[in-house]
Amino acid sequence: SVEPTEAGDYKLCFDNSFSAISEKLVFFELLFDSARDDDDEEEEEEEEEDGDAAAAEPGDALDVKIDDIKESIETMKMRLERSIQVQALLRAFEARDRNLQESNLGRVNFWSAVNLGALLLVAFLQVLLLKSLFQDRGAPR
C-alpha cells in the first residue's frame, strides 16, 4: 500500500537485479481508493440530512429519488469494476498456473525420454552380456 503524497503521475519500477539470467513472471494489481470518494460519501450524508427536511416538498421528492437512483448506479458501477478486477486477477493466476504446468510438462517429457534411453541402453547391454556368457569360446577339441 502506498499513500500518494503528491498529485500527478507515478511510475512503477520492477527491479530484476537479483537474477537477470532467469525468467520471472510478475503480477501486480493497482487499486485506486481516492480521497474524493470519502468526500463524496460525507457530502451524500449531509445531503441526506438536508434532504429529509426538504423531502416534504413535492418537487424535492423527485430530486431525492433521482439521487437515490444515482447512488444505486454508482454502487453498482463500483461493484462491477471490482468484479472486473477480480476476474483479471483470476485470469493472471490461471495464466501463471498454466505456464508452470507447461514448463513441468516439458521437464517431465525430457526426463522420461532420458530414462527411456537409459532403460534401452541397459537392456541392450544385458542382452550382450548374456549372449557372451553362453557363447562357445573355442572349447578344446
Automatic annotation (TrEMBL):
Its main location: endoplasmic reticulum. It is a single-pass type I membrane protein. GO terms for cellular component: endoplasmic reticulum membrane; endoplasmic reticulum-Golgi intermediate compartment membrane; Golgi apparatus. Pfam families: EMP24_GP25L. PROSITE patterns: GOLD (PS50866). It is found in: Endoplasmic reticulum membrane; Endoplasmic reticulum-Golgi intermediate compartment membrane; Golgi apparatus, cis-Golgi network membrane; Membrane. Residues 36-52 have a biased composition (Acidic residues). Residues 36-58 are annotated as: Disordered. Belongs to the EMP24/GP25L family. This is TMED1 protein. The gene is Tmed1.
